[in-house]
Amino acid sequence: MQMIDIEQIPAGIIPPPIRVGGATISEEAIAGEMQYHPADSAGTAQLKAARALVVRELLRQRAAELGLDVTGEDETDLAIATLLDRELNIPEPSDDDCRRFHAAVPTRFSEPGRVRVRHVLLAAAPDDAEARDARYRLGQKLIEAIKSSPERFTEFAQRHSACPSRDEGGALGWLAPGQTVAELDRALQHLPKGLHERPLASRFGWHVVVIDERREGHAVPFERVAERVRHTLREQATRRALRHYLLALEARMGVDGIALDDESDSSLMQ
């Protein structure tokens, strides 16, 4: 039975206790664990925390069965590590496995495209319509001035930009996907070289943008990423083995009040 989101529990309804074998996971323990499981709601964080504690208790009980020391937190951590070393059978990926995986998902191991960017950030809060309108019009004026006098970009960055890059004339350097705010990042992946013809919006305001250079992404030969490929396959195999092991412990020892899911191994992998 899955744990109920505490934000949705009707008044007077008490969620079922969570038990692992003969042990009970207390509400206080779950509340204390929640800080390690950030989520978009308190209920989701609670559920993740509860599952993490169930996983730990399953492993603690199995370690105790084997005579390992679980008398304290540090001892339990060491016992769980020893237990998993003993009982998880993780096959080592072969060279052929690695080469097949690399060939099947070449983009996963590619060098991403990069752009060398300068910008002027004209700051305005997302909910300040008046300020955003004024900054957009300023951005248009700056773009028109830069078109006729490109050398003034540095001056405008130093005078108007709210980004620390103003001290570098607006230069952000080489950016790969994911290295700047998401809405600007998406636009940068598709812009041609040169001054963009209109300001670009982000949560911070408007950006006057120049793409100075673009390098397209490209595939990387297997030999250069062989260890990354091997590590990826080893991690996938570890996750599968750990998931099956936990589900087997859950079935044998008994867990009430919650069910493990496909991500219950995540806290251990991290």
UniProtKB/TrEMBL annotation:
GO terms for molecular function: peptidyl-prolyl cis-trans isomerase activity. Residues 112-213 form the PpiC domain. This is peptidylprolyl isomerase. It catalyses: [protein]-peptidylproline (omega=180) = [protein]-peptidylproline (omega=0). Its EC number is 5.2.1.8. Keywords: Isomerase, Rotamase. It comes from the Bacteria. PROSITE patterns: PPIC_PPIASE_2. Pfam families: Rotamase (PF00639). Gene3D superfamilies: 3.10.50.40. It is an enzyme of class 5 (isomerase). Belongs to the PpiC/parvulin rotamase family.
